[in-house]
UniProtKB/TrEMBL annotation:
<dbReference type="InterPro" id="IPR050592">
    <property type="entry name" value="GDSL_lipolytic_enzyme"/>
</dbReference>
<keyword id="KW-0732">Signal</keyword>
<dbReference type="GO" id="GO:0016788">
    <property type="term" value="F:hydrolase activity, acting on ester bonds"/>
</dbReference>
<protein>
    <recommendedName>
        <fullName>GDSL esterase/lipase</fullName>
    </recommendedName>
</protein>
<dbReference type="Pfam" id="PF00657">
    <property type="entry name" value="Lipase_GDSL"/>
</dbReference>
<comment type="similarity">
    <text>Belongs to the 'GDSL' lipolytic enzyme family.</text>
</comment>
<dbReference type="InterPro" id="IPR035669">
    <property type="entry name" value="SGNH_plant_lipase-like"/>
</dbReference>
<dbReference type="InterPro" id="IPR001087">
    <property type="entry name" value="GDSL"/>
</dbReference>
<dbReference type="InterPro" id="IPR036514">
    <property type="entry name" value="SGNH_hydro_sf"/>
</dbReference>
<feature type="signal peptide">
    <location>
        <begin position="1"/>
        <end position="33"/>
    </location>
</feature>
Length: 372
């Protein structure tokens, strides 16, 4: 049976599938003594972030969407146990990046109206949980599409120009690290769960369509002065607890990764790497630094060799049953595991802070390269 046919039959078999429409996710970090290894890097002016729930620190709090996480138990291991809108128990990978380069401990959401000029100058996230490269993806969940995130970035530029002048702003943007993390929603939700895109595209054709969106995004950021850009690849999507639930013959007893779906993510990552290499080759003489960040390998290693990392559970999330809950289904009334550091996943889609931190350590060399 083909991947598409299998997904179609399983979605019909599981009434749970609709809740997957909105939820998306990804991966990243755990708070360790990061300050001990922080590299104060004066060549990095800011961290500017675009994408989905893996890098949204709370922008969805300020828009009309049900896909939020600004309530317990989210944020249980964050400072002051604050549920900020991050879809995890603590910090995101982008928070660890900002801390590592010596800017600040947390990357705030751009839509927070209380941000100071200093906060703006050192970096913000424009990301929105539920978004993706495909313009159709954020419409499913009424979240912020990536072109709109770019419009917010242009607005951000203008605010800085008014405050510190155009020359300083241009220099700040040139020295900033741009991080883009999206794509999981496009494949898991938009292609394999909904019938619309499958009617128009083969999986290979759809991935090519997404690469066109990636290229357009880079062009738009480049036109606004971005020169250091890091694209995060996809995780093994077949290992997301909710994907296992929707595609297992027995969701409670047979909880192995759905390998054919993870292979789709692996193929996507290969296409993304090739696209980024081609763009970098064309722009290198103009001072570009465009890098690919691999999370497929680190997450796969954590799942396969979980005991080496101190994990005890890799196919269920910490919140609720861990097999279906995310966003509003993981709420103050949900059961929560006593120690999230024993889990790769916080809810049925999103990683724990510890997972994010381990991934951050794996990508740190890319931060070093893009910063120099």
């Amino acid at each position: 049976m083909s991947v598409s046919a299998r997904m179609k039959s399983n979605v019909c078999r599981h009434s749970l599938s609709l809740f997957l429409l909105f939820l998306s996710a990804f991966f990243f970090p755990r708070a360790e003594a990061l300050t001990k290894q922080r590299g104060l890097n004066l060549s990095v002016s800011a961290v500017l972030v675009f994408g989905d729930s893996t890098v949204d620190p709370g922008n969805n709090n300020y828009i009309q969407t049900p896909f939020r996480s600004n309530f317990p138990p989210y944020g249980r291991d964050f400072e002051n146990q604050e549920p900020t809108g991050r879809f995890t128990d603590g910090r995101l990978a982008t928070d660890f990046i900002a801390s590592y380069v010596g800017l600040k401990e947390y990357v705030p959401p751009y839509l927070d109206p209380t941000l100071s000029l200093e906060e703006l100058m050192t970096g913000v996230s424009f990301a929105s949980a539920g978004s993706g490269f495909d313009p159709l993806t954020p419409r499913i969940s009424n979240t912020i599409e990536i072109p709109k995130q770019v419009e917010y970035f242009k607005e951000y530029r203008k605010r800085l120009e008014l405050a510190i002048g155009k020359e300083r702003t241009d220099n700040l943007i040139k020295k900033a690290i741009f991080v883009i993390s999206a794509g999981t929603n496009d494949l898991v939700v938009n292609y394999f769960t909904l019938p619309v895109r499958r009617k128009s595209y083969t999986i290979s054709g759809y991935q090519h369509f997404l690469m066109q969106q990636v290229e357009q995004l880079i062009q738009n950021l480049w036109d606004q002065g971005a020169r250091r850009i890091a694209f995060v690849g996809l995780p093994p999507i077949g290992c997301l607890p909710v994907v296992i639930t929707l595609n297992s013959d027995n969701a409670f007893l047979q909880r192995g990764c759905i390998e054919e779906l993870s292979l789709v993510a692996k193929d996507y990552n290969s296409k993304l790497q090739n696209k980024l290499k081609a763009i970098q080759k064309n722009l290198a003489h103009l001072g570009s630094k465009i890098f690919y960040i691999d999370i497929y390998g680190p997450v796969t290693n954590m799942i396969r060799g979980y005991d080496k990392f101190g994990f005890e559970e890799v196919t269920n999330g910490c919140c609720g049953s861990g097999i279906v809950e995310a966003s509003f289904l993981c709420n103050p009334n949900s059961y929560v595991c006593p120690d999230a550091s024993k889990y790769v996943f916080w809810d049925s889609i999103h990683p724990t802070e510890k997972t994010y931190y381990i991934v951050f350590k794996a990508l740190r060399h890319v931060v070093d390269m893009i910063s120099n």
